[in-house]
Amino acid sequence: MGNITNLNKICQDLLKGLLPRQKEVIARRFGLESKERETLEAIGQSHQITRERVRQIETDAISKIKPRLKKYSKILLALTKYFKSQGDLKREDLLLSQLGGDKFQNHIYFLLTLADPFSRFSEGQNFYPLWTISPSSLKSAQAVNNFLASYFKEKKTPLSLPKIYTIYKKNFHQKIGPLSEQALLSFIEVSKEIEPGIDNLFGLRDWPEIIPRGIKDKAFLALKKAGKPLHFTEITSLISRLNLPQEDERQALVQTVHNELIRDERFVLVGRGIYALKEWGFHPGFVKDIIETVLRGRKGSMSKEEITKEVLRQRFVKVNTILMNLQDKKSFLRDPRGKYSIKEV
Prior knowledge:
Layout: H1 7-15, H2 20-30, H3 40-47, H4 51-65, H5 73-85, E1 89-91, H6 92-100, H7 105-114, E2 119-121, E3 130-132, H8 135-155, E4 159-160, H9 161-171, H10 173-176, H11 181-189, E5 194-196, E6 201-204, H12 214-226, E7 230-231, H13 232-239, H14 254-263, E8 267-271, E9 274-277, H15 287-296, E10 302-303, H16 304-314, H17 319-326, E11 332-334, E12 339-342
Antiparallel strand pairs: 1-3, 2-3, 4-6, 5-6, 7-9, 8-9, 10-12, 11-12
Helix pairs in contact: 2-4, 3-4, 6-7, 12-13, 13-14, 15-16, 16-17
């Protein structure tokens, strides 16, 4: 963003010449001497004055500070250039973290509050708190995010930022104009509906592969990433290696994973402790049920070799297990040619 050094010294310089109470109110309101910004009410209670009186002191102090900003025009220009590189807006927590680091986030907040053309938008139903140098950029971000949300709902698959950028250029380049990939990322970051998941893939926040909720979603994500059926012990191990956001400190335990998989219809038991995803085309049920499904899907009878081949696509079992189930005369008929069909009741 440019070389902003010693933010604390800059802010202290801006406070010079204020009355002691004005200086205290500004320092506490913006957290310039602590990590927390204080409310009007909290400051008023400590001085036994009303919150409106505190607001008046703050307003008077800011009116005295603003003319001194001319001294730091280079810093304000650097801030403006930063915003332009981000598409004219930035989500507040990311902005403060990037520019203020661990110690000076409140100081950046203070400078942005004082100066033009920086404007803050409070948190809304669809957006996180953000800052902008052009209110029209928020409308552009909203249009882009509404389109992307609809796209995700239709396609039902996470996408990388480069792929999203390709979609943007195809659908919005003419409407909004040239936009860098970083600026597009800033648009997406302010949205509450679209979030990043693992492997830097973006999607809808209610998708388990974006924000997994509980062991079942984590197991679902682990299997999707593996792309093949796995034993529940392997799924448990993979969960720990997914680098997921930690909403709690509990580790996935083998037995817990197994118990959750049994109860969730998204998973199909396809072998001894081996699970697959139903969305991959695996059918629930025992081997006998799979044989029936195979036979119903084929008009006419099938040889045991044909049945075995199809069942082994669905289940990790021994061939003898399939042949033993075919011997169930209450369920299957064997014709003189040695082919099988379902015995209808």
